[in-house]
Protein: Tetratricopeptide repeat protein
Organism: Rotaria sordida
Amino acid sequence: MTVSNQVVQLNHEFDSHIRERLSKTNATILFCRMLAYLSEYSLAIKYFQRLLRVLPIEHEDRPNIHYQLARMYRFLSKHQQAIYYFRCAKLLQRRGLPYNTYEYGMTLASLGTVYLKLNDSKRAVCVLEQASICYNLVSQNYNTETIFHFNRLSYAYYLEQQYERALQMLNKALPIYKQKMPVDHPRHAQTYHNLGLVHRAMGGNDKALVSYQ
């Protein structure tokens, strides 16, 4: 059971995170993200493609439009199109470094997710490690996005048979999840699942069983 004051704190942190994300999103992008939340991915793609046609080539929203387009294609499992637009977003965002380092990290992390879907673990590890640098995880200023990043990178390490690094990442992630996320959050379960995979691969079947349970 979670006591009420902890629930209030969790809700406050989540609300603050959402407000921060929305404050960096203009109305044009927000409208299309709402289409995505409604699973209207094809409509969102048409809308973003139209924006790319009408906006000036140096418009400040173009990197984010490419990023959002890539996400829509990823949701539709059109991975090659997703990779193309994530790469476009990455190139455009690179011009604004270091001021948009966090957004650049999100693009790298999302690109790594697509590589994981394609079982290209080597490329996934490469871009996810770059995302870790952008997120500056050593600062311990964790939010929802950076917490989820632990699962992505640990799974990439597992696929690359870098079990010690995966285990280190997961052992670091668990206390953060317990502190920041509800105990029944699905990503919490994913952390234990990844931990079970790593323990089993390292021959620790008893520890793997506990994690799976």
Observations:
- DSSP finds eleven helices and no strands in the chain.
- Residues 63 and 89 are 5 Å apart (CA to CA).
- The mean pLDDT is 86.
